[in-house]
């Protein structure tokens, strides 16, 4: 899948790799801003606290000199193309820094007519990995602090970008944590699976961070905010929470690119990406579909084949 | 010499209180997170990390029924909540940034309307605060006028000592009563050497100056600059010890159901959505501005207090790294 | 608060026998929003409908639920009544407490409880219902008739005579269908071709009929009043506009020994041919598989002899799009064969009859050709194997039909009569011959039919044996037929010279594929389904598509012609107005909330969803949203279930209605 | 053919979401053929299985259904050509999701019942009803409905109609 897969693997990603990516992003961003290719660039700036970063929209070459790429650059910036940054797109082309997992969202959004390829200048990151949620912000990245999603990353080396920053050396021998956890849950007796999710969903406070950071939750009126009729209870009680997370997973089925932002931002540590991954696995098995590998005209749930599996139908 | 309680006796105290049919709430591990939760035994108390949600839910639950209704024999019957049945509650192990929050919130819940749901829970609760030894670079309690050893809001305040026990200070009558009722668990201190308090990451802020700046800058380029990356979730508000907005929803059918009060957040796009469809806070930076304004100006205007305890939860949790301490520093540094 | 009226029907005793209708009515009266509830013996009767109308006025009702039979039965009746009372018809719904309750449950307590629940569901639905106004769409007054047999011909002529344009499509080189193959017809024994060919000529000469033979339906798009049908004109290799029908090509064609399908393979034809002399059009077609020119590139005789130069070996399949407002499906039938069937096929062949390998065991249609004056034997009954005149002929009825073990349980309806006819034709032609008929029952409902059958038995000396044939086999020149006479209770063995099987009538090959193109439903035998067995026997459930003839089920000629005229009448009714009123159950987009992901467009089976640009007053593009063309929307609601934000909503089945129903459970 | 009027300890609530063209008509046929089946099923009619949103199934379970049946036209028979094909994929995915969160799929039945299959309708409904009856009530979603976050401290008065705030009492009496 990765034409230029880097076979050199290591047990620690050194700060020098991130510095190199940072430098490449800065140079490219300055150039495209200077020559007028783009009206702005969505990238990362350092945060106040050491070892943190945050998204930023920059519009001048001077600001572009401050862009960074560090293990703290966890955000999927494509969320800004459909939500708060919608306006920027109208002023012209926009540059966006995107990791491989973020690019899957971009492809999905193109397929859903939310963005156009020609409106974007994609500065892709050949990505070695980023911090996990609440991981220790040491300067180098190891198995101990790399994000769960990065353990099973298949898109280290993104394709189809306008520019690729850096050359990643992947960590070797990472345990596929999510796959193992998914297999563990699948193997549980049905009642224990229910208990597992019930415990997690009950903790949910409905802060909607999962929805708000999701590049695909771009509806102007979320079904779950509607009260006439009320399909999902608004109140943060176990009943409504369970319904919300089921509906969310269903709405993302066949669309989610696996950036796992929902799970990262959950203040209650609900393993939401497991749901997304489970759906992705099902759709891969049933319809041989993987979301976001390329802009697709139709997702797996808005197309069909006459001989689709119907073994579950009497 | 002040009174002390050993860690073991603190746990024993919890066991005793549970036996007395009191609800004891304290930090407890739940999967990977620590949350304030009812403790079944003293052994469940976890004191090594700040709970992910603040302690406000003890008085201001995430969601509570405020009445229920049912059609019986063709007539709608409304059933109120029997608040006299709220249990006696002891909150144990709240750091100053959490213990201080009810003291701030009392004002708004007993202002033009006495929120008996909140107030009854307050009346029935005793807060055992604990001085904080575990700050990180997101903490800024000192910047907003509190400190790792502030006993504001606590009925009984514990200060960790180097020998592992806690110095006790009865701040209120409630606190004194708690000590008196279980006197045998408390002893005399051998030494009063307090463990080192938590370090803070920010300088002290001039809250008066900040408020003054806010008064003159309802419209300011700063708002767009700091909040244009806000994605409009409610995680900052929901885990905040001071945010107290709520929504009321009727849930159920035309036959029976409940009226529920639950947390709401000014960051949500629908928060100020009018029935007409008009939304005065139509873009995210206006919503984020409200968060800052409410905390550092409006609440002070009305109640003379700052609506922030500097716990740093929002700094840690913000999905996009918006840092309120940094914003306050920026405003603090402004000259105009 | 709504003011709903609930009317609980007894349906004589059909409902009240198992459902306590009074209790259902009184429980309905307790439902919030129900202003009036009563029960009545026959709601669909005039007094019943008047009761409803009166109650609407008296109690100022703003919605009505009639708890009675299936809405498929009387929804229209009550909506009309509600409408007459000044209520929007879409605020009148039926609670099906008969088909779904009283008829399927016996426990009165349970049935009553269920009926009350059904009423409650429908009350909630009506409460959240909206007034809907019919949608008007223009009607293209041009009809498509698929199939050029007697059904299609009759329908086409009727519609054309009414002054409307008709496109008649036939997949064979000539129209005429099965009726053109028949010798004589029951019960009058008039010559089939004598009555058929004039109609075929009428079709060819009718100014309002455009005939496309050797053509098939490729694709059907659109909806009632506005279909776009793509036709595939198979390459004939003869230019119809140039051909004069002189026939010299056929006489000169060197390939002369091809079994003629029209004669059931018993006559011979050339590679360039017309199926039968009276074919319409009389333009030959080249059978490319058997043509030397096409197979080896060497010959070209027909092109050389053709004066007008009509033969065109390069001709390719051609496609055309026809805009029509209505479609009559008249694709007819095929005959069951006793041949071995593929593995796993639900329909079985007859191993006990030799799987069709015995040459003198033929089917009824072959007998028709043998008896036909224009047939391969010139009307003489000669058996296929050696051309001898058979003296003992055994006719076996119900071969495949009513034979559940062979996979077909229905009666083919025409065999009793045509077998009786065959015995007569045989007796007329072979005076010293003897006909035997093995039969289960003689089914002769039809004008003059039983008289006809009796004539066969009583006057024409056919020996009817009530019983089945268990086996037959070749023995020398004879075919031994072993059967039983259950009336006498003995085994019968007849050494026959010829055996004629009355094989079952089956749906045409590919009937299911055509149905899928048309979007009409079909039964498990691939016969097309009418919208209602009794009251809408001609209409399909898909609006604007009508059925005629044996494609819907076995039928004889009079029934076929009647139905064809009926279908034509339905088409004329549709064409009687310039605008058609359509059911307003269509999807609408909420443009405020639609974000233009266009998932709805991707799933819409009708292509009804278009992109629409929303612009501000200055003309700047604000966003692109989905737009549903109400004229094209079929009302399935797949878009709404797909839309993540529910920004598209199907009128009549809104989320609010459905959720309210679920809440009430 | 006469069904025995057996008494069961538990009568499940079965909700059926059916399309109007095939399964609803098939159920009508069961009626006109006077077939017998358990009275537990409540039918909600949709134009097409394509209209059936997974949320409806979820909602039905939340609102007390012990079993849910979704039934429509056989592939190729859809009155709307493709609605059932889309539904088929949607429900295949939804089943997997429900299974993963721990819902017993024996409570959720999908079927194709054509207008001609009155007998199959009876068979499907009877089988699901009996299976769910043997499984007992669907407690998962129902019990969730009554669960609260710990801090809510359920304290509803025992007696309905007890109104102990003067404001509420006053407001209530005005109704």
Automatic annotation (TrEMBL), chain D:
Keywords: Iron, Iron-sulfur, Metal-binding, Oxidoreductase. It holds the Pfam family FlpD. Residues 14-136 form the F420-non-reducing hydrogenase iron-sulfur subunit D domain. InterPro entries: MvhD/FlpD (IPR003813). One of its GO terms (molecular function) is metal ion binding. It comes from the Bacteria. This is Heterodisulfide oxidoreductase, iron-sulfur cluster-binding subunit G. It comes from Citrifermentans bemidjiense (strain ATCC BAA-1014 / DSM 16622 / JCM 12645 / Bem) (Geobacter bemidjiensis).
